Amino acid sequence: MKSVSHLQASQLLHNKFIVVLGDSIQRAVYKDLVLLVQKEKYLSLRQLRSKGEMSFEQDCLVEGGCLGQMHNGTEYKEVRQFQSAHHLVRFYFVTCIYSHYMKSILEDFRHGLKPDLVFVNSCVWDISRYSCSWVDDYKENLRKFFDELREALPEETLVVWNLTMPLGERIKGGFLVPEIEHKAPQLRYDVIEANFYSGTLADAYGMDVLDLHFQFRFSLHHRMKDGVHWNAVAHRKITSLLLQHAAEAWGVILPCPVTVYGERKSGVTHTCRKIFCTSRIKCEVGTSPPAGGPLRPSMVIFDWLLSRCFSSAFSASSWSISACRASIVSSNSLEKSNGEGQMRRKIWRGKFHCLLILLFFLLQQGKVLIQFGLNLLHTFISIFGGGVQLLLQEAEADMGLTQLLTLR
């Protein structure tokens, strides 16, 4: 999956109020979103690791952080906000999905500006820092939170509950104080169980659920050494998933993700060439692709080779190049799928179909060549065989004449 560009993000979130609720991973989600609506750049390692700073990319620290006491306790607070002429993004650091502090946040929603989009997750702190038997407490807190959130927000607000990402076997982090280090080996399994409870309950309350645990199960190389946090590439993918989910919910067709040819230096992508799709969102640079989305460069070349092979042999056949190309286009289209794995399978399935067609074409051409050779051999025998038979008849006649003269 390609990343959402700065232009796409800024236009999609134009005049929108976005709220991000959660832990340090959600803080990084907020930071990447703030960065993306301003420029085409990735988060640096220092930006990912820092917390509670006074300012990040033109945002401001509203409450907590370095304004108060910096610590790793459950009472730590951090409220950040980025505001521009057409964007408003706010972040609340929470360590429990339902608490007195969460009630105050919901009161802000009731009596203040209503958010258009809410990204929320709270899991790791809930299941590790408050109780050893966390299951019942976590379920009950989720119900209370979803009940009050539904009352505090209007129906137009899009709430996305994103599931917790995979943890490593050996983990360390701010939440993992020495008192609970013995829970570390079991915590990654508890996260899977907690994701099941929270995802099922959020879906029952009619909220959108984004399974980041599933999305990143094969992207563990993007996880940091602490086994908890993730690098800038992973967070850009999270942002892209969230924004594409929001766009689909709002009925907005985003341009196809930009295919970039070039290199990235110091977090900034220096592009040599970009390919866009048509969209309801107007872009400064763009071209209209064929129906079904643009073909990748390799698939375009593959399609051209197939067209050259099949243009004369299968023009009236059901195995036409149009059917073959439709298979390629459908496998590369940006339709809704259940993840990159299925999209890869679709692409390779399309390639496999095309290879079968190519093999069938070669077999057909081989049959034609064999038939041509047989016809040529038959013609050769027909032409030269008659001449040989005539010579034999003349030789037999000469031999008969010789024997007759000898007898006389």
Automatic annotation (TrEMBL):
Highest taxon in the source lineage: Eukaryota
Stored SUPFAM superfamilies: SGNH hydrolase (SSF52266)
Family: Belongs to the PC-esterase family.
Name of this chain's protein: Family with sequence similarity 113
